[in-house]
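<goal> How does this chain fold?
<body> The protein record starts here
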Amino acid sequence: MLKTLNSFTKILLITFLITLITGVFSYDHNMLVAAQETRAEEKTDQEATSATTASLKERIEKVVEEKENKNGSVAGQIDYKTRAIVGVVERVSESAITISNISGSVIIPITPAVELIKDDKQLLIADIEIENSVIALGLQTGETFTPIKVIVDDDQIMPRPQVVTIGAVKEISSSSLSIESRISSSTSTFSLNKNAQIIDAENNEISISDLFEDVQVVIAGYIDNSGDEEKKIAQIVKALVSLD
């Protein structure tokens, strides 16, 4: 075929073929370089992810190893789990706080490694007060609890024992109400604060002065053990009969 073409046409055809072949090789080379760069980026991302995971794993293993060594156990042969202890502060010392909850009293050791927080700010152990509410977060290893973070709050977060009594009013004052129980014939005295709601038989709000001796009422409230003596705090006082 080349024999039938003139010299100029041959030159053009050969030039075209060379350009085409060069372009193909150039394209393949660029694709190869791009593929290598993509694999390099994927490898870098995988290495970064692996490094982050390894770092986190090392931190966890370090904490666990410290707890195991402290308890004289062989690494990897002890079970541990996260735990939260909620209670009210009973005592405070330089190295521990004692809190009470429904299970009894628990001593929480406080070391420089324990983070103390109140209102999202760092706190010193000397700033913790009796009757503060506490949430202690940490690791439970066997019978040993190791705190990592302790959250302190002034508000009551523990559930309070509820009490409901039905009976006849015996004594009334602006701050307390005594009633004789229908069931046990014993007398109970409830403290009244500004949050106490007093209603009549039709659920209309009334004043404490609208009640009178021997009127039948039901009182719902809670028991407050925070002071030296147990107190019953009324939340709702409802008359069971007409007050007219």
Summary: The first helix runs from residue 7 to 70.
